[in-house]
Amino acid sequence: MTADAPLLVAEDLTAGYGRMDILHRVSLTVHEGEIVSVIGPNGAGKSTAFKTIVGFLAPRTGRVVFNGDVITGLRPDLVLRRGLAYVPQGRIVFPQMTVLENLEMGAYIERDGGRIAAALERVFALFPVLGERRRQKAGTMSGGEQQMVAIGRALMTAPRLIMLDEPSLGLSPKFVTQIFDKLVEMKAAGFTLMLVEQNAARALAIADRGYVLELGRNRFEGPGRTLLDDPEVKRLYLGG
Ligand SMILES: Nc1ncnc2c1ncn2[C@@H]1O[C@H](COP(=O)(O)OP(=O)(O)O)[C@@H](O)[C@H]1O
Ligand SMILES: [Mg+2]
How many angstroms separate the alpha carbon of residue 48 from the centre of ligand 1? Predict the structure, then answer.
């Protein structure tokens, strides 16, 4: 892999459920160190695109290249081993397990205790509240804190790229702000992020680059700021 090669190239992905195609030759690229935001109306295929990239759906056309290797159709656990972590929509935590146990679950592919301990320290540095509440059952935490558990779990394997599907969905305004602040902090700490967001304006505001999907197709792409200022993007997707 050359120095300026993208970390992730998903190109020409056609995928769907059963016989129905939802994505039509969708392409998304992420470079190391970037935040890339994917926006678009409900049902545009954003979650489907993420699921296809991380191996939950096999594409009918196209390919996924991660870190220089073709990973198209690879099983999700093997994709994770390559360094691509995925935080699904809905801040899924194990409610009866403690914060610490939830985080340890994220390291299930890791056997080296020292590396797990180091990963935990990194997560607690980024999310101090998780360190303070490590013995608390995850199900008793607030929505925003549960989202931090879900993100922290994805960080336990020291991934090269973290894909987050709707990290702010359903959170109260205070926690929405907190999650977006955390994403910016994660970038500053050296993580590379790609996210899907219905909170389009905020997602573009923190993004190096953004994509707009519509009806399963690429509709617009460009620097976050450019998309944010684009009159058509504004009118169609940012509520004027
Ligand atoms: N598991 C599924 N089975 C069948 N159709 C699905 C499934 N998940 C999503 N869809 C359909 O795929 C389309 C795109 O959904 P999705 O990728 O979730 O969109 P977005 O994340 O942009 O809101 C929608 O029409 C949705 O109804
Ligand atoms: Mg979705």
Answer: 6
Q: Is 81 exposed, middle or buried (0-12, 13-18, 19+ CB in 10 A)?
A: middle
Question: At residue 147, does pLDDT exceed 90?
Answer: yes
Spatial separation of the C-alpha atoms in residues 239 and 106, rounded to whole Å: 37
Q: Is 146 in the pocket of ligand 1 (CB under 6 A)?
A: no
What is the pLDDT, as a whole number, of residue 110?
82
Side-chain half-sphere CA neighbours of 7 within 13 A: 19
Is the pLDDT assigned to residue 111 strictly greater than 90?
Answer: no
What's the CA-to-centroid distance between 133 and ligand 1, angstroms?
35
Q: Count CA atoms within 13 Å of residue 124 on its CB side.
A: 13
CB distance 22 to ligand 1 below 6 Å: yes
CA distances from 26 to 15, 50, 220 (A): 9, 11, 11
Are the C-beta atoms of residues 14 and 59 closer than 8 Å to each other?
yes
Q: Does 53 reside within a domain?
A: yes
Range of the domain at 41: 1-82+207-240
List residues bridging with 38 in a β-sheet.
196, 211
42 touches ligand 1 (CB under 6 Å): yes
What single letter denotes the amino acid at residue 169? L
Domain at 75, CATH number: 3.40.50.300
